[in-house]
Every structure is written in structure tokens, then in C-alpha cells.
TrEMBL record:
EC number of the protein: 2.6.1.44
Taxonomy, superkingdom: Eukaryota
Catalytic activity: glyoxylate + L-alanine = glycine + pyruvate
Enzyme class, spelled out: transferase
Positions bearing N6-(pyridoxal phosphate)lysine: K200
Keyword terms of this UniProt record: Aminotransferase, Pyridoxal phosphate, Transferase
Biological source species: Caenorhabditis auriculariae
Xref: Pfam families: Aminotran_5
The protein, known as: Alanine--glyoxylate aminotransferase
One GO CC annotation: peroxisome
Lineage start: Eukaryota, Metazoa, Ecdysozoa, Nematoda, Chromadorea
């Protein structure tokens, strides 16, 4: 018999207008997009091997070297969100038989450890980056999250690179939540691999993960016993595609053209302000946040000021207050703040002030909305 071909009914909901309200994004990311970045994304597409686009990729690489503060030739952006930077770093730097030391100060160390365990790597998790752990365990790679977005802690990195290099380990750093918003210098700190994301301080849409590999890291990758199990994340292939080596550029994948336009524009904005000026602005505005919190009887979650991530402030939820009701009050005003993550759920709010959102007037608005919503709950 003949089978009747079915004609699917188009989903009614899909045919409705897409709803995208305007929103002030003061959560842990994404942050608000700068207008010029949004405009850049609307530019016409070019072919990803056209000379004009190759120039845009080259400019993007220069911008990334500038914000990471590195001369690493292998500096480019992985097509994917921050997680793709983590995956790219791990699948290239580690192979079976390697030991991976993870400094776990929150969710992101756990995530890196989990990924390495999936890869069959020997993983050791420690709570602080102390030298003994590195000397005893002799890992091939040490992971540290610079800006821990689940707690609002910035991890000091001074001296860790030296300890790593003395024992032959590579230092891998996550700067997804901190790049451009907290002091960081890849080369001075002896960082061998660092990755980030576009949707935090850079105010670009999510979709690319800036990444940089030191010569030492590239040498380890070149001397692997086994091939990198991922083609898409292969650092040497990606490096060739981004023009990091002397070979003729090969097709690797189709770069997300519009997102590269956005990143290039975002980096130009940072370059115009100056990377150090951008970082200083985040520190100064963080001071303002602490002052305003205190004036409203609210407390930062991170006690020591030098441990606070300037671009992402965590605030203690006062006893008896439901964090969600307060966040909902702000959302009703079109302002997003977030609650905790993992062990901090219910205990903190997370207020991201990334890039253009690190602004005095905007900060005053957000903290006054927060203070008002908390007071309402306390007086009930
Ligand atoms: N690391 C850190 C420190 C982050 O804050 C995030 C995102 N919140 C990630 C990694 C993962 O990035 P993405 O969500 O863009 O994949």
C-alpha cells in the first residue's frame, strides 16, 4: 500500500512575533551589548576566506593579544561560548596519562575537573594554589579560575606560574568573568593558556571564546603522543585558520562571521579606552558599589576587599529575605540581577557590572532598586 505523506502543521507559536523586551543585564552575564557592537553584527556577511574578513580576523587577534597582555602568536577565538574555550584548552593540553591539578574555589574548577575526568585524565582537586600540591602531584597542567563568577572572588595569580614552570607544569587560567574587569597580565604571570568569553566585560554577544597559548603550551601540543580527539577544537588547526602560523591558511570551519565583527568592534572599544583604564574603572566603580551597599546596610559576600572581583559583586542576602522575591522585583523594573549558584543559592545575589554597565549612574540605580526591594521585605 502507499503511505500517505503527512503535512506538518507549522507551530502557531513560531508564527507569532518574537518577544525581546529591553533589559538592563546586571547578572553574571551576558551583559548589555554596546550599540556599535550591535550595529557591527548587522553588517553584510563576507566569505570567511575573503581578504577583508582575513584582515578582520588579524585585527581581532591583535586586540586579543592587547587585552590578554600577551605576545603569544597562538592567540585567537574559538567558535563557541566560554565553555568552548575550556574544552579547547583541556583537549589540547591534556592527554591520557597526564595529571591535572585543579584549584577549586567554586563552580568553574569543578567544571574543568569534570571535563578532564570525562577525558580519562587523572585529576586532583585542591582548595588553594599552594606550591606543595604542585610539587608533590607533579601535574602536567594546573587550572585556576581567575574570576570565579559563582562566588564573586578574584583569585590572585602572582607566583603560581613560576611554581608551575619549576615543576614542568603548564598554567591554565579561566578569565571568562574577569578579562578587562580585573588586573590580568598573561605574559607577566607566566600563563600558558588563558581563555575568556565575549559576553561579559567585552559587551559583545556570546558565541566566541578568546584563547591564547604560550610557546611552551604549543610545544607540548606539538609533542603529544596521541592526536587531539577533537577536530573542531584542535588548537594547531584553529591557529592555522586564524593566521597564527607561517603556513598557508586552510579551511577549518566557517567562522561565525557576524560574531567576529562584534568581537573586533568590542576590542576596538577597549583599545580606545585603554585596557588599564577599563580595568581601573571597574575597580573604582566596585568601590562605589561597596559604599552604596554599606549605606543601605547590605554586605558584600566576599569579606576581604582584595579578593572581590571588581566586575561581579556578590551581596549577602539578609536573614529572612527571599532572594528570589527581591530579584523578581528588580526584573519587574526591567533590571536583571542573579541569585547564587551551587552552594551559594539562596545566600547571595550576584551583580555583574561588566564593561559599559560599570557606570556610576547605572550602579546607583541598581543598588537603590536592590535596597528598596530588600527594605520592603524587611518591613513586612
Ligand atoms: N567560566 C566562568 C568563570 C564563567 O563565569 C562562565 C559563564 N558564566 C563560563 C566559564 C562559561 O561560559 P559560557 O557560559 O559562555 O559557556
Amino acid at each position: 500500500g502507499t503511505m500517505a505523506l503527512s503535512t506538518p502543521v507549522p507551530p502557531a507559536s513560531l508564527l507569532e512575533e518574537m518577544v525581546v523586551p529591553s533589559r538592563q543585564l546586571f547578572g553574571p552575564g551576558p551583559s548589555n551589548m554596546a550599540d556599535t557592537i550591535a550595529d557591527a553584527q548587522h553588517r553584510n556577511l563576507l566569505g570567511h576566506l575573503h581578504p577583508e574578513f582575513i584582515k578582520i580576523m588579524a585585527d581581532t587577534r591583535l586586540g586579543l593579544q592587547y587585552v590578554f597582555k600577551t605576545k603569544n602568536s597562538y592567540t585567537f577565538a574559538v567558535s563557541g561560548t566560554g565553555h568552548s574555550g575550556m574544552e579547547c584548552a583541556l583537549v589540547n593540553l591534556l592527554e591520557r596519562g597526564d595529571r591535572f591539578l585543579v584549584v577549586e574555589i567554586g563552580l568553574w574548577g569543578k567544571r574543568a575537573a569534570d571535563l578532564a575526568i570525562r577525558m580519562g585524565i587523572d585529576v586532583n582537586i585542591v582548595a588553594a594554589p599552594h606550591g606543595e600540591a604542585i610539587e608533590e602531584y607533579k601535574p602536567q597542567v594546573v587550572f585556576v579560575c581567575h574570576g570565579e563568577s559563582s562566588t564573586g572572588v578574584v583569585q590572585p595569580l602572582d607566583g603560581i606560574g613560576e611554581i608551575c614552570h619549576q615543576t614542568g607544569a603548564l598554567l591554565l587560567v579561566d578569565t571568562v568573568a574577569s578579562l578587562g574587569g580585573a588586573r590580568f597580565d598573561a605574559d607577566a604571570l607566566g600563563v600558558d593558556c588563558v581563555y575568556s568569553a565575549t559576553q561579559k566585560v567585552l559587551n559583545a554577544p556570546p558565541g566566541l571564546a578568546p584563547i591564547s597559548f604560550s610557546d611552551r603550551a604549543i610545544e607540548k601540543i606539538r609533542n603529544r603522543k596521541t592526536r587531539v580527539a577533537s577536530f573542531y577544537f584542535d588548537a594547531l588547526e584553529l591557529g592555522n585558520y586564524w593566521g597564527c602560523d607561517a603556513e598557508i591558511k586552510r579551511y577549518h570551519h566557517t567562522a561565525p562571521i557576524s560574531t567576529v565583527y562584534a568581537l573586533r568592534t568590542a576590542l576596538a572599544i577597549v583599545a580606545k579606552e585603554g585596557i588599564d583604564a577599563s580595568i581601573d574603572r571597574h575597580y573604582q566603580n566596585a568601590q562605589l558599589i561597596y559604599k552604596l551597599l554599606e549605606a543601605n546596610s547590605l554586605e558584600p559576600f566576599v569579606e576581604k576587599e582584595e579578593w572581590r572581583l571588581p566586575c561581579l559583586t556578590t551581596v549577602k542576602v539578609p536573614a529572612g529575605v527571599d532572594w528570589k522575591e527581591v530579584a523578581d522585583d528588580l526584573m519587574a523594573e526591567g533590571v536583571e540581577i542573579a541569585g547564587g549558584l551551587g552552594p551559594t543559592v539562596g545566600k547571595i545575589w550576584r551583580i555583574g557590572t561588566f564593561g559599559l554597565n560599570s557606570d556610576k549612574t547605572k550602579i546607583e540605580q541598581v543598588i537603590s532598586l536592590l535596597a528598596r526591594a530588600v527594605k520592603k521585605r524587611c518591613n513586612l
